[in-house]
Amino acid sequence: MSEHQHNNTLINESSPYLLQHAHNPVDWYPWNEQTLAKAKEEGKLLIISIGYSACHWCHVMEHESFEDEQVAQVMNECFINIKVDREERPDIDQVYMNAVQLMQQRGGWPLNCIALPDGKPVWGGTYFPKEQWIEQIKQVANFYEQRPQDMLDYAQKLAKGIQQSELVSYNKEKPNFSWQDLENTLEPWSKQFDYKEGGPNRAPKFPIPNNYLFLMRYAHLKQDNKLSEYVQLTLDKMAWGGIYDQVGGGFARYSTDKLWKVPHFEKMLYDNAQLVSLYSEAYTCYGKEMYKDIVEQTLAFVERELSHDNGAFYSALDADSEGLEGKFYVWKKEELKSLLEQDYPLFAKYYNINHKGYWEESNYILVKDQSDADFCKKENLELDVFQQKVKHWQRQLLEEREQRTRPALDDKSLTSWNALMCQAYTDAYLAFGNTYYLHTAIKNARFILDKQYQSDHSLWHSYKDGQSSINGFLEDYALTISALIRLYEATFDEQWLNKAKDLTDYCQAHFYDSQSGMFFFTSDLDAPLVARKMEINDNVIPASSSVMANNLFALGHLLDNSDYLNMAQLQLNNIKSDMPSYGSGYSNWAILMLNYVAPFYEVAIVGTQAEQKALDFKQHYAPNTLLLGSTTDSPLPLLQNKMIEGQTTFYLCQNKSCQLPTTKLKKVLNLLQ
After folding, report:
1. Average pLDDT over residues 401-415
2. CB neighbour list of residue 422: distance below 8 Å, 6 or more residues apart
3. Which of 58, 146, 482, 671 minimizes the number of CB atoms within 10 Å of its CB?
4. Helix (H, G, I), strand (E, B) or coil at 259
């Protein structure tokens, strides 16, 4: 006999989020054909409730409403209730998020939608307090009973709106990209920059690493000092803020205020992966030691708390522990005093255990407000000695924190997010030369190819407890291809390139829309939803479509494949006119456009020391380049007949023609200026 009073069908699921709801009195079902057939058979409306395991307000609504017998009674009587993990099923989330945004002009999680038995949405919102939730769903149920035709007509209209939004049509104009196009995108966007605290001039603040990758590259290529300073300001402020875990490394999902101070405390794999890539590139660009520290500490956190022995990475850590948000991460004064003893006064100054770091209920969030060099100057301390002391404090506090009740871990592994982390480790290797990072990246790539890759070149989306499940989405392919291209640049091992090509060709066969020249988010092998969507706008993760376009550009150059190059150009051309309206939402497309408007080079390195020379080259900032190379003869078109016996040579190539070979890295770098 179960020790739980209630069990519903979610008990058979593997998603930690769905399992959290398996003992609710609400009779939840997973999204599948049987559930949808049951709704049609019984003629009942669907409640589709979407969230994820680390979501604080999802927990609040569960506790207030879904664990409540009175609420459950109404939901079970009038509806078929479906729980969806948005991380497992981003395709379902995309459709119903789009619906709620069309209805309410805003969205978020938990996402709660009521739909007809066929899945067409008719009503929705985000978090509702218990009484309001009961009242709203009763009203919708009554309306359906009394005026079904009106509801059907409305659902039809809304479905049409969902189908048409974020679909892209073919641009018949000849592709032509210029610096002016990028300036037209940047100009309105820059009006939203916060030049005091970094990031956007509003709250909440999300890191959105892709934005700063573009801005950093643009500033470098245009020698725009003001923009370069803004990027560094943002990176510094995020690293000093409460959004960054000053004790254990790693970033929270976003800051609730303009100061990057009070985070939403959940830590997601995808944020940390992209931020490692961003800070690695920023280190190469700006040379700030702090950026290297951030990468090292964040990767130490990922290894400690989000890694499986088989090379996979877990998805997320919850915001809550013991039912309280942030409890695991914050500190009380007395606690710090007894731990740090005579060091406390200095620690309190450094981490602002004062009105600046105060949060609520006698809790402090550790935040910095200046560089270590400035702090030491002010306090008359030796920088090296002080930084050793800070490391000691971090170890002390981490040890103490380990005694606390840990936030829940979402231990599923998603192919797309794992690929982001694989790329992050590769980027860190290329920035710092630490071979351990490269080994970790390769181990993860092997996990993806061993467990998530099938013989027909398709990918699974999710992995948990030895089981791979859910047919892959475009994000899985796009981000895996991107990671494999990066691994090739780091190793010159052509197996990664060949796999990237196989996956790209699979996307062309199963995701491609020949009318627009774009890719759909879902495969043509998947059961249809209300709409087959494209993912165009870059968000906290870049859009799968923009990642694919960048992949096609890179692979087109590496493999000398004009079909890929033409597809990349056509896709960017389709998007071009939308970019000025929403720079932050097109930053990854803007990165691709940079490759067309600035001179773009392939750097071929051939000879026994090719891998080491590639690493030497990567210590210098050259974002408008792509590396390829080999230690022996290679079948790649750009590498053929380039081997010179007994030496390792560089070739700088552009538009299929290469300059004379040189063994001098300095010469190559001078030519790139």
Report:
1. 96
2. 441, 444, 445, 448, 483, 487
3. 146
4. coil
What does the block give as tokens for 235?
A: 């990176």
In degrees and rounded to multiples of 5, residue 268 shows phi and psi of -105, 145
Give the three-class secondary structure for 218. helix
The pair of structure tokens assigned to 67 is 């664990």
Residues with Cβ within 8 Å of residue 341, at least 6 apart in sequence: none
Q: How many CA atoms lie within 13 A of 484 on its CB side?
A: 29
> Comparing C-alpha atoms, which of 508, 298, 502, 542 is closest to residue 420?
542
Beta strands in 52-147 (DSSP E): 79-85, 111-115, 121-125
pLDDT tens digits, one per residue of 32-45: 999 999 999 999 99
pTM given for the model? 0.96
How many C-beta atoms lie closer than 10 Å to residue 327's C-beta?
Answer: 16
Burial string for 358-397 (b: 16+ CB within 10 Å, else e) reads eeeeebbbbbbbebbeebbeeeebeeeebbeebeebbeeb
| Dihedral angle of Cα 628, 633, 639, 641, to the nearest 10 degrees | 160
Tell me the two tokens of residue 352: 């602002």
End-to-end Cα distance, the chain: 73
Q: Which of 608, 600, 506, 518 is nearest to 567 (CA)?
A: 518
Task: Return the pLDDT at 1.
Answer: 37
Q: Count H helices and E strands in the chain, helices first.
A: 25, 23
**Are the CB atoms for 618 and 283 separated by under 8 Å?**
no
Structure tokens at 273: 């992966």
Alpha-helix runs per DSSP H in 147-257 = 148-164, 179-190, 209-222, 225-240
Of 168, 108, 178, the closest CA to residue 534 belongs to 168
- The per-residue pLDDT for range 472-491, each reduced to its tens digit, is 999 999 999 999 999 999 99
Q: Taking Cα atoms as reference points, which of 295, 268, 287 lies closest to residue 437?
A: 295
Asked whether the beta carbons of 44 and 81 are under 8 A apart, the reply is no
